[in-house]
Write a structure and sequence with these properties.
This protein is α+β, with helices and mostly antiparallel strands. It is built from six helices and ten strands. The chain has one domain.
C-alpha cells in the first residue's frame, strides 16, 4: 500500500522512526544509483563517528529516556570490628553512549577509488543548535565543499534549524541542494513544501559523463513500502513536531480521509 501523501510523509519524521528511515533512505539511494550509473562508478555507504558530552542538547534525540532505578546495596567495612557500616543504597543510571555514528552516501570512481560525489541526508542531531552533531556535520560539510567532490544535501525533517547553504533562499518544509565542484559560487536548490512530491534531481559525475536523474519521491516510496512503514505508522497519533497551521491541518485531514464507499 503506498503512502497517502504525494510527497514526504510527516509521520516518518517521528524521532523513534527517523533513524530507521535515514538508514533505509541511504540504502535505497545506493541501490537506485548503482543500477543506473556506468560501471566505472559505484555508490557506497560511509560512516562518520563523533563524540558528544552528557549535557549535549542532542542526547535526548539519541537516548530519549535515561534508565534510572534504585538498587539495594549493602556493603560491610572491616573484618575486625563487630560493628558493620552499611552504605546508603544509591540510584543507578545508564550512561548515554558518547560515541555517535552517522551514515552518508559516496560515489567513487571504480578505478582510482576517489570520491566523486557526496550525498548527505540530515538527521535531527545535525539541526540541533549547540550540539556536537551539528558542529561535526558542518565541519565535514566544509571539508567536502573545499574538495573536488560534488555535494548534495537532503533535509527531510521540518524540525530544527535548517542548514541553508546561503542567505535569501525561498523557504519550504524540506530542502535539497547541490553544489558542483567546478563552481562553488553557484548552487542549485529545491525548496519542497509538504504538499508537493519530492523532486527528481541531477547527480553529477566526472566531466564527460552524463548525470544520473535521482527520483527522490520514487526512493521514498520504496522506503515506505519495503521497510514496513505501511504497517508501523499509527495515523491516529498527532503529526510529529512542528505542528501544522489550521489550513495545512485541513489539507492533511483531507488526505487522510477514508474514501467514500
Amino acid at each position: 500500500m503506498p503512502s497517502p501523501f504525494p510527497g514526504m510523509n510527516p509521520w516518518l519524521e517521528a524521532p523513534e522512526l527517523w533513524p530507521g528511515v535515514h538508514s533505509a533512505f541511504i540504502s535505497e539511494i545506493r541501490v537506485y544509483l548503482n543500477s543506473r550509473m556506468p560501471s566505472k562508478y559505484f555508490a557506497d555507504v560511509e560512516e562518520r563517528v563523533f563524540l558528544c558530552d552528557s549535557d549535549d542538547p542532542m542526547i535526548r534525540l539519541i537516548v530519549p529516556d535515561v534508565n534510572v532505578r534504585e538498587t539495594a546495596i549493602s556493603t560491610n567495612f572491616g573484618t575486625e570490628s563487630s560493628t558493620a557500616a552499611t552504605l546508603t543504597p544509591p540510584l543507578q543510571a545508564r550512561m548515554a553512549n558518547p560515541v555517535v555514528r552517522e551514515r552518508r552516501l559516496v560515489i567513487r570512481s571504480a578505478d582510482e577509488q576517489t570520491i566523486v560525489t557526496v550525498i548527505e541526508i540530515l538527521s535531527p542531531a545535525n539541526k540541533t543548535s549547540g550540539s556536537a552533531g551539528r558542529s561535526s556535520y558542518l565541519a565535514k560539510r566544509r571539508d567536502v565543499l573545499e574538495s573536488e567532490s560534488h555535494f548534495i544535501e537532503i533535509d527531510l525533517i521540518r524540525s530544527g534549524k535548517q542548514l541553508e547553504p546561503g542567505p535569501g533562499l525561498r523557504r519550504a518544509d524540506y530542502l535539497i541542494w547541490l553544489s558542483r565542484s567546478q563552481d562553488r559560487s553557484i548552487f542549485e536548490y529545491w525548496p519542497t513544501p509538504l504538499e508537493s512530491p519530492l523532486p527528481t534531481i541531477p547527480v553529477p559525475l566526472l566531466p564527460g559523463d552524463p548525470e544520473i536523474a535521482l527520483n527522490l519521491q520514487a526512493v521514498l516510496n520504496d522506503v515506505y513500502d519495503r521497510s514496513g512503514y505501511v504497517r508501523r505508522i499509527n495515523y491516529s497519533q498527532p503529526v510529529p513536531e512542528p505542528t501544522l497551521d489550521e489550513a495545512r491541518m485541513t489539507w492533511l485531514n483531507q488526505i487522510m480521509k477514508p474514501p467514500a464507499i
